[in-house]
């Protein structure tokens, strides 16, 4: 959980959410995968790996946007909370 203070303390804050988990592979099933489940291989024009697209891009997009805005000197009016987690399928 990260807090980016806004310029107006009376303005309601905004929360941006994303998760970066990977569901475990059942032990003993590793040889059934077309590509190794945790390798992140690039083959046939695709990224192959457990959770390769499962919302990690949202975490990165939010962090990149905030970093760019900070570098440009932007200060949001509302406080921005960045809430990142993991394990939402099993925890």
Work out the number of β strands: 5
Order of helices and strands: EEEEHE
Helices, by number, come to: 1
- Main beta sheet, described? 3 strands, mixed
Structural description of this entry:
The structure is a single chain. The longest helix has 16 residues, at 56-71. It contains one helix and five strands. The mean pLDDT is 88. The strands form two sheets. Strands 1-5-2 form a three-stranded mixed β-sheet, covered by helices on one side. The protein has a two-stranded antiparallel sheet with strand order 3-4. The protein has 91 residues and is an alpha+beta fold. The chain has one helix at 56-71; strands at residues 2-4, 14-19, 41-43, 46-48, 80-85. It is 18% helix and 23% strand. Strand 3 (41-43) and strand 4 (46-48) form a beta hairpin. The protein is elongated, with a radius of gyration of 18 Å.
Write the layout of secondary structure elements.
Blueprint: E1 2-4, E2 14-19, E3 41-43, E4 46-48, H1 56-71, E5 80-85
Parallel strand pairs: 2-5
Antiparallel strand pairs: 1-5, 3-4
């Amino acid at each position: 959980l990260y807090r980016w203070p806004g310029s107006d303390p009376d303005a309601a804050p905004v929360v941006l959410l994303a998760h970066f988990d990977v569901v475990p592979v059942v032990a003993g099933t590793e040889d059934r995968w077309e590509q190794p489940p945790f390798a992140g291989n690039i083959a046939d024009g695709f990224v192959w790996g457990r959770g390769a697209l499962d919302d990690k891009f949202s975490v990165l997009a939010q962090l990149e946007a905030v970093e760019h805005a900070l570098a440009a000197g932007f200060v949001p009016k509302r406080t921005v909370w960045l809430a990142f987690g993991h394990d939402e399928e099993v925890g």
